[in-house]
Fold PTS system beta-glucoside-specific transporter subunits IIABC.
Amino acid sequence: MKYEQLAKDILDKVGGTENINSVFHCITRLRFKLKDESIAKTEELEKMDGVISVLRSGGQYQVVIGNHVPDVYKAVLEVGGISAEGAENSGNDSGGNLFNRFIDMISGVFTPVLGVLAATGMIKGFASMFLAFGWVTQTSGTYQILYAIGDALFYFFPIFLGYTAIKKFGGNIFVGMAIGGALVYPALAGLTAGKPMYTLFAGTMFESPIHITFLGIPVILMSYASSVIPIILATFFAAKVEKGLKNIIPDVVKTFLVPFFTLLIVVPVTFIVIGPIAVWAGDLLGHGTLWVYNLSPVIAGLLLGGFWQVFVIFGLHWGLIPVAINNLTTLHADPILAMTFGASFAQIGAVLAVMLKTKNQKLKTLGYPAFISGIFGVTEPAIYGITLPLKKPFIMSCIGGAVGGGIIGYAGAQGYIMGGLGIFGLPNFIKPGSPIDSAFWWVIIAIVVSFVLGLILTYVFGFKDPVEASAATAPVITEGETLIEHEVLVSPLQGELIPLVNVKDEAFSSGALGKGLGIVPTEGKLFAPASGTVTMVFPTGHALGITTDSGAEILMHVGMDTVQLEGKYFKVHVKQGDKITQGQLLTEFDVEGIRSEGYDITTPIIVTNTNQYLDVMVVDEAEVKPGDRVITLVI
């Protein structure tokens, strides 16, 4: 219990064990979720020996300790009498303001299913395209099977969202799926045939014929196939009901009585109250967005097409995705995402201009994979690796995307499915069962114009071309100046080098953990910056420490707060105690996967024993690749 007193003091300053909902740790900090942060003595904590800093982020009260945080964490559990299981029961409250929590909820519900939704949408789109070209007939087995593959997920969407939504809300995933299944149960649709018993809200927009009742209460039967809002609200309600039932039902019968009563309560309430209100709200939302769009489709296209990439950078696009899916459900077409279609083509036009004009070989090499991925609608490598760091190309791509969006708005083109991206997104604009119309060809024109504008504007207005790194630009250190080069560390990543002060985490940017730099990686491979020994591998794979043969202690931390991914997207190739050589592959990680979860991928490279050196000198480079000289340690 080396850290027993420190643990006692920390627990006292955060308000005691009774003020802690949960606590876990990452590579450098204790992460508390407190019942009341206002009673925590933050200033006193920050002045304590053994505490580097205190941060509030993502609904967490973070006490920055340093590399020995695992030992302090164990001491906190021991001193506080907290079980490891209870300590890490962090729940699903993401913290932050209402808008941030809404975005977090939407991304958590839709992210797991978007890949397969795009895949099935592509199949449905290609089936429609084959039909439009006359390659298949609507009654052929080929078309019927392809359409079934493409349409099944969207038709039974409430079941899939029942899984993802209730998981996000902290409930039983199978209860969520059962609720979704009840909403699309085929036999209920047949009950609407025949003369209704009576009509509710006659003469209003909410007029509803009543065909059945539940315990004498009228049930408004609606079609919930492909719906979005009803199942999200129902699973939110179910998670709350389930939590309440767990508190009152004895443990010995919880396994079956909790889901039994949850379903008995939630499903009827959904059919009687939640479902109809949600459907009406969805209809209003759909018609509301259509009304705004119809005010001026061209202006709407200019704004959405121009700012779409900005929305993606800040994660704001998640607010529009459920609107688009709701439009497909209620209106059977969506103009919102359709108007953003040219943005990715404007982006690759700008990338091509950079590749043609730059004299920086590293930038030119980086452009090839960025351009190819952009063709298929994946523009993050282009944005973060090329256009955004160069600034002007990003602005020019936004202009190109705006003009493309304006053309699509002018043509009145709409998407009819949630299909693929980039060139695979073209079938989205073909209405199933209908021939190709003129709006489709306007979409082709729009993406060509977006691409050409991104290319020409970037080439004409130019950009500041990064200077190639060379031995001549490397710092020269001589004994005559009493500065002796002790060791050189090379870049462990490919990406954009940024000053440590620009890293969006105070524990790193303040230099409290040591001097170093940050790299925004464009490739998910972490290599050894020097030869030495692996001294620490965090269980989740997001952080790794080495001690070089010359004694430098290096911490490499992939992304901000990525400990919360619990190892997802990471694959570690070494273990603690391994001898490594410079350039050896240490860890692989999925850059886009981590970003898709909403995490900043910036990776700090820190010399944690900085105080043993006279200086830690960092090169001034925009782009680096593995093997480039980035840090010089001076004694």
